[in-house]
Amino acid sequence: MNFFLFINRKLIFLSGIIILCLFILIIFSKQINLSKIEVKNIKNTISNADILEPKFAINNNSKKIFITAAEGNFLNKNEIMLKNKVRFKSNNFSIETDKVIFNRNKQTAHSSSRSLFKSKNTKITSDGFNIYDKGNKIIFYGNSYIILK
Fold first, then answer.
1. Whose C-alpha in 11, 42, 49, 61 is 20 to 30 A from the C-alpha of 32?
2. How many whole angstroms separate alpha carbon 9 and alpha carbon 31?
3. Is 105 helix (H, G, I), strand (E, B) or coil?
4. Of 92, 139, 90, 91, which Cα lies nearest the Cα of 111?
């Protein structure tokens, strides 16, 4: 009986070594080809922005106007220059432009860059705008075009 147990141990040991050798052969037969490896050049764009993707809101009694942008820079304690894809959005309208100076304390915003105002039945393009009185009043500057539906 011990003789059969001794043979089984040898067979198990030999089969383990054979499997290990086959595994090593398979690994080394699949050589890594360096020409197939793609190197991706990822450029980290360094921005001079103080805030990336800032979000603010102008609050009054009847509505909220949410303000988003790609980047922002502090001009002083209360004023922030918002740049790139600046958007003012409320339930009633939206305004899109490239540069806005937003005053957090007074809850005002003004821009002298090309702007697009959209509401349900109205579109206004202008050379700038001024939002004041906590978002209740908007003045459009420069050459303005109004489209009413």
1. 42
2. 34
3. coil
4. 139
Domains and CATH numbers, the chain: 51-148 (2.60.450.10)
What distance in Å separates the CA atoms of residue 102 and residue 146, rounded to the nearest whole number?
A: 25
Hey, what are 109's tokens?
Answer: 């915003």
Separation between Cα atoms, residue 101 and residue 112, nearest integer Å: 9
With tokens 């459009």, the residue in question is 140
C-alpha closest to that of 102 among 73, 128, 126: 73
Tens digits of pLDDT across the chain (149 residues): 555 556 677 778 888 899 988 888 777 766 655 555 566 655 555 667 788 888 988 887 788 889 999 999 999 988 999 999 999 998 889 999 999 999 988 889 999 999 999 999 999 999 999 998 888 889 998 888 898 88
How far apart are the C-alpha atoms of 108 and 138, rounded to whole Å?
A: 10
The pLDDT score that the predictor gives to residue 115 is: 93
Q: The tokens of 5 are what?
A: 């147990």
Pairing of strands 108-111, 71-74: unpaired
